[in-house]
Amino acid sequence: MADGDIKEGKGVGARLIRKEDDRYMRGRGQYIADIKLPGMVEVAFHRSPLAHARLRGVTIPEEHRGSVFTAADMVGVKPMRAVSGLPGFKPSEQPAIVTEKVRHVGEPVAICFAEGRAEAEDIAASLIVDWEELPAVSDMLKGREPGAPLLHEHWGDNIFLESFVDGDIESIAKDAAIKVTREIRTARQCMAPIEGRGVVAWWDNRLNQLTLYSACQMPHIIRTGLCGCLGLDHAQVRIIAPDVGGGFGYKGILLAEEVACGWLAMKIGRPVRWIEDRREALTAAANCREHHYFITGYAAADGTLLALEAEATVDSGAYSAYPFSACLEAAQVASILPGPYDFKAYRCRTYSVATNKCPILPYRGVARTGVCLAMELILDGIAVEAGIEPYEVRLKALVPPEKMPFDNITKKHFDSGDYPECLKRAVAAIDVPAVRARQKRGEPDGRLIGLGMSIFCEQGSHGTSVYAGWGIPMVPGHEQAQARMTPDGGLEIRVGVQSHGQGLETTLAQVANEVLGIDPAKIQVVHGDTGMTPYSTGTWGSRCMVMAGGAVATACKELGKRLGRIGAKLLQTDVANVKIGNGEVVGPSGSVSIAEIARVWYLRPQDLPADVDPGGIEVTAGYKPQRDSGTFSYAAHAVVVAVDPVTGGVEILDYVVVEDGGVLVNPMIVDGQVYGGVAQGIGTALLEEMPFDAAGQPLASTLADYLLPGSTDVPSIRILHMETPSPYTEFGQKGIGESGAIGPPAAIVNAINDAIRPLGAEINQVPATPRRVVEAIAAAARAKKVA
Amino acid sequence: MKPGPFDYARPATVERAAALLAGSGFAKLLSGGQSLGPMLNLRLARPDLLVDLTHIASLKEIRETKDFLEIGACVTHANIEDGLVPDCTNGMLPSVASNIAYRAVRNRGTIGGSLSHADPAADWVSTLTVLDAEIVIRGAKGQRRVPMANYMLGTFEVALEEGEFLEAVRVPRFSKSARWGYYKFCRKAGEFAEAIGAVVRDPERGVCRAVMGATHSTPILVADATALIGQGFDAAAAGALLDRHEITDAYERQLHVEALRRATVQAGA
Ligand SMILES: Cc1cc2nc3c(=O)[nH]c(=O)nc-3n(C[C@H](O)[C@H](O)[C@H](O)COP(=O)(O)OP(=O)(O)OC[C@H]3O[C@@H](n4cnc5c(N)ncnc54)[C@H](O)[C@@H]3O)c2cc1C
User: Which residue from B1, B194, B254 is facing A646, i.e. has the nearest CB?
Assistant: First the structure.
């Protein structure tokens, strides 16, 4: 069977229609904003208008006393802390509500409530806050300079963490024929799931429990974090993530608003609800992607990559966000910058810098999007110097299949794959000679055609050893899943990960179907509720299909054994003689359906002999892949653009993705993940940017200023699959959820540069806005004049 | 992002609307709400009273004479796009309308609201300026008319006196041989323009007009553009116009000149 072909059945590999889409497509999803509880009040926060200031006092108008609370009221509530175990890390304390000092625009200063949100906003607007404004750090490079204003005074500087990977660059550099150096920048972005954040909290007297609904990706981690802040036992907190309209990392965090709303619900004894609006998201939560690189690649005259040296700075924002910490990005930059390549020497120094912006969060692709941009721009630079096609430079440096599994220069363990073949398929699909011919012909409208590529690998589903090394509050262990039969032969799968668009209600049912043969229509996947599911670190890091998929398979196999033992009794044969599959237990002289076994077990136990296995037909099982260093999916992106050299406008004419995610559990869903990821990557490449002024004010406070990719900005993307199994996972599947968002900025910027290179121009920054493109061309023209 | 409290009135006649406007307190007119809605939600506008014009039948009327087409203030962009409004501009009005924002915005946004909101980047602002349209203004004292070039005074600023509102626009009829050009540059479909070039050439009527729009203020109008575009496009002259309007940013200048050049080419000049 060829890669990506349609497979029979409903198990692993089937293009099964998503079960959850029935309610989503009919508008029957149940999101936070759909939850209404009797007596519920609405919350609005008074947020800091300043980026850096000391709080002198809050004046609450007489008529609103009792509807407003500040940090002074929240006695005993602890700040959020995400410490990293990496040596030299400086921890920060992030209060849910500002105590003495505000460190970014939008930090909550007071929590206000009323019967409706508009009234709550009226109250929030009526507060008078006395501030002593401080100079702000709004640029990470300036924040590194001595004498910069300090966010956390006792640190003595603004560096959360400095990390260093050393290698012998000098011995290579002295003989390298080619040296390419660039300064590269990515913009600060605001993740923009269609549904923003939201919280509903209420105190359940019967259960002595705070029930907190949150549009989140990791309910169990939120529970642990919230217990720490509010001083509650785990038994006293239940977190429910109902339908969640997109996450991307934006909802993989313990929120100040969760802590504050949880506290308020207990304080006033009424259900409270906070729904984030777009302005809050843009001004208080633009929190990802901002990197800066000085990077140099060394290559032989023929373009063979020899060494790489980089200094990377990541704008980590004001605090270390729980649980991923302020240094996840920068620490990852150092370890993954070498990409899918094999070369001799590597050196990288990274800085996680505290600035007066909101805390950085890992956004789909995490550090990889910036890393891939930096690395791939260097490779194109080398190709130009060597006078060969960019893909040829890459083919010389990619880890070849015969070296798999491969430990790269930073000890990343690439599990499997044929990276050169992936690139070759992209080269063929985009038709490089045809594009080159078109470039020669020229366009009637004067636009310039450019071809760009990127290739990268994505470590996903990394487990205990990797996270223990980072030493952050959350270290994934064995992933657990529960499989339990219902009396009517239905199967309930309970998982601690959360599905917010990934289609896990379908794919995990496919996994169970693969093992037990039960029709997915009779399998219910329960997730997003700490009261109903086993503990898990949740959904992040492209981990669900590998980790939860493996756990579901493990639980189903154990359940199958138990069903087999009962089935053997019913078939009056020894358990060694029965087999399970296709929804039934088959013996030498007949079979019994799983449904019948469940019915007998629960409803007609009198039909079972006394020596039946008493273990029952509910199983919780834990799972780890054979190695926990992560799966490495990989992809090549190839794009053709047309650049208008006068307006700077960029149009994407063709876009190809060749993707290897190992064995695909549901290729249709994988395609969807890739499409969505590429759309976001296009946003990173061309549109999305949250600028800040020198005082730390975010300048794009509405979606008219913060441009997101729309339907007209996303071309029809051609996806080709390869399916190289991972040797370490249950079915050979690999994590792939983030992949689509990683490759586009590199491929698109390379394509723009390919188009404008004849003008002597180059761009090394995203988003590659029309203004930046035009300015790059103008700068090249000026340089030519001088020369 | 919820508005502060306000009262709401939905008059059925222009007279009643004028009376409500003249009442006490800070009243604001509401048409399509596509600009005012966000301003209310962001609390940039805090009126005491909203006077909704969209239920006044006469404001949705169209009137044709041999010289002009009169379009009521509350006619939507979508109505014009869909050809529900007769065209007297050889296709310019529906073409411009169809490229305003997204369809959802066009379904509600009105020509009167757009012109009165007076965002320099709005399409009708530049279009009706190049078309030499006339604005019909209604107030408690009755009607008056001003040319579009005198209606918009600056960014978000129009020549309405206390208690007045825009009742209709009058668009001069093109002759058969007239040609037009309209080019707007925006970051993505549906966004406001960063530069607009608009040209009307109607030798039979002795009209040759050009506009550079989406500037920082009112559109730059060249009422007699014969020298600018008559003998091909004079980029230096366009640049000089930008100098005069103190548009110094190199990128903006390049966009404005290019937008006008492309509009000129489209108009066959
Ligand atoms: C996402 C988005 C994209 C957009 N993109 C574009 C675009 O590309 N090009 C473009 O041109 N426009 C664009 N717009 C604006 C849109 O065209 C609006 O329709 C227009 O600006 C306002 O018209 P309205 O009828 O909605 O007016 P309203 O929002 O109701 O009112 C706007 C202002 O005008 C006043 N007003 C309303 N009617 C009158 C009247 N008859 N007399 C006097 N004052 C009045 C109001 O009091 C208010 O101050 C966009 C809007 C949105 C939301």
Answer: B254
